[in-house]
Design a protein that fits this description.
Helix content is about 25%, strand content about 35%. Strands 1, 2, 3, 4, 5, 6, 7, 8 and 9 form a nine-stranded antiparallel beta sheet that branches. The chain has four helices and nine strands, in the order ααββββαββαβββ. With about 180 residues, the chain is α+β, with helices and mostly antiparallel strands. Helix 1 crosses helix 2 (about 20-30). The chain has one domain (about 10-175): Roll (Pnp Oxidase, Chain A). It has helices at about 10-20, 20-30, 70-80, 110-125; strands at about 35-40, 50-55, 55-60, 60-65, 80-85, 95-105, 135-150, 160-165, 170-175. A hairpin with a 7-residue loop joins strand 7 (about 135-150) and strand 8. This is Pyridoxamine 5'-phosphate oxidase putative domain-containing protein. Keywords: Oxidoreductase. InterPro entries: F420H2_bilvrd_red/Heme_oxyg, Split_barrel_FMN-bd.
Amino acid sequence: MSDSVPGPAVSWDEFVDAAPTVSAVFRRRHAAAGNLVMMATVRADGSPRISPVEPREFEGRLWIVGMPDTTKFWDLGRDRRFCLHTATVDSQVSEGDAKLFGRVVDVPDPALHQRFAQMIFDDIGLDLRGQTFDHFYSAEITGASSVAIVSGDDTPDRMEVTVWTPGAPERVVVKH
């Protein structure tokens, strides 16, 4: 696994506390798309790969989960970097969107895996209880951004891009 992922990173709960605007847009768009987002990983040859994934919040972390033994998880096993992008549903971005940048950490904790499996069973009826998880990836967030279209009574619509990095407050870039 590549360990050359520079820069500070935070847990999901720390990200939510530090970046309330971006995390709110991510959560809203993630839920609106049925928990589906697109994930970018790095292929063995260095080119990008885009794959659907259904990250889940659980016990203060964001878990990158999906069908095991797929190329996206092989990618993460080789190079921990990823980008998650919420589904953009229109070219005007009227519902907003968000991107999370980070790296994964494999958490080999069978008790945690079983608590997660129970939560999934209770939530959607998928029965993973009792199964062994070869890899269980927690997301560490190294940066994030969101886009929102803001309308005012006396001003034309404008796009606000909110950007966040660990250790700094969110900042807004306005595009007209």
